Amino acid sequence: TMNPHPGGQIHASHPEYIIPDVYVKKSRGRWRVGLNPELMPQLRVNSSYAGMIRRADNSKDNVSLKAHLQEARWFIKSLQNRSKTLLSVATCIVERQRAFLEYGEEAMKPMILQDVAETLDLHESTISRVTTRKYMHTSRGIFALKYFFSSHLSTSHGGEASSTAIRALIKKIIGAETPKKPLSDSKISSLLSEQGIKIARRTVAKYRE
Could you write out the three-class secondary structure of the chain? Predict the structure, then answer.
């Protein structure tokens, strides 16, 4: 007869659902990126107020109206630029991580903020700000934009492998091991070395955890 959740009588928390900022879907063999129109504010300048401004009038009221109109137009333009930057960054991420969209985590390419910044000719801090708390809807699920950025490790053939892809490989190896005889970190390191991935035992232990 007792309530197992007495705290619920004081405060009932409501689930916060993630609403994606960007949608990615494949159409006619190409991955296409689009912004979520529901999250884009539809703002415009009130034409009635804009029509009250008299060009040659330098009175205090008219100067104030001109200043407010200029600020309103600047604000709308700033929002448009923000949306344009988000779309550019998301498009760049999709182009670089096309293999992930096609084949999953194991095909994730190493990528850092600087890579996108150099491609789009923007500052790295801008890319960091644009991708913070932003989400992308893909055929594989909803992911934070930050998810697509990861460190990298060298491979024996001179290339690089994403830490996300390596974690996925470790998960796959562990999933196939005999439960009664689990693989050691050293053995997993050796198995990855056979695939050309140079990784230390302690790094395996960290990723495994």
Answer: CCCCCHHHHCCCCCCCCCCCCEEEEEECCEEEEEECHHHCCCCCCCHHHHHCCCCCCCCHHHHHHHHHHHHHHHHHHHHHHHHHHHHHHHHHHHHHCHHHHHHCHHHCCCECHHHHHHHHCCCHHHHHHHHCCCEEEECCEEEEHHHHCECEEEECCCCEEEHHHHHHHHHHHHHCCECCECCCHHHHHHHHHHCCECCCHHHHHHHHC
Radius of gyration of the chain (CA): 25
**Distance between CA atoms of 188 and 192, rounded to whole angstroms?**
6
Cβ-based neighbour number of residue 204 at 10 Å: 24
For the cut 80, the answer to whether the pLDDT of residue 38 exceeds it is yes
Q: What is the pTM of this model?
A: 0.77
What tens digit of pLDDT does each residue of 24-37 get?
A: 999 988 999 999 99
Q: What's the pLDDT tens digit per position in 143-194?
A: 999 999 987 776 666 567 788 888 888 888 988 888 888 899 898 889 888 8
In this structure, the strands spanning 135-138 and 141-144 are antiparallel
Number of other residues whose CB lies within 10 A of the CB of residue 69 = 16
